[in-house]
Amino acid sequence: MSEPSVLLLAVVGAHLSGQPLNGELTRLGARLLRGCRTAPCYRIFALPGGPPFKPGLLRVGKGEGAAIEVEVWEVPLAAFGAFMMGVKPPLAIGTLLIEDGSEVKGFVCEPCGIEGAEDITRFGGWRAYVQSKQT
């Protein structure tokens, strides 16, 4: 069995299509596979700081979260290490549960990172939150 040449990566905020950090993915040769939602076990927060402004995704207990909009990208495995060098705390890469029951690597936030952050779960995702700030 051959080693995989790509890694599936779910992005939730500034790396989404059309967002300020999306170019970090496209420059690596990453390819958008699909838009979808997480399983309903996450909360999303607008983290302090920026620009670029970023969200933090936190997995929570059953019944405490919501399904959050994400995009799943196919990232060349050979380029993933370079990409990871740019991921700074409190953000990290973990394993996300997707609404269809699958699991993919994706952006998560350390619990300490949500101190002072705004809970934006009610928007269902980063794009809707950003749009609410523009109107």
UniProtKB/TrEMBL annotation:
The lineage of its organism: Bacteria, Pseudomonadati, Nitrospinota/Tectimicrobiota group, Candidatus Tectimicrobiota. Residues 8-131 form the Allophanate hydrolase C-terminal domain. This is Amidase. Pfam families: AH_C.
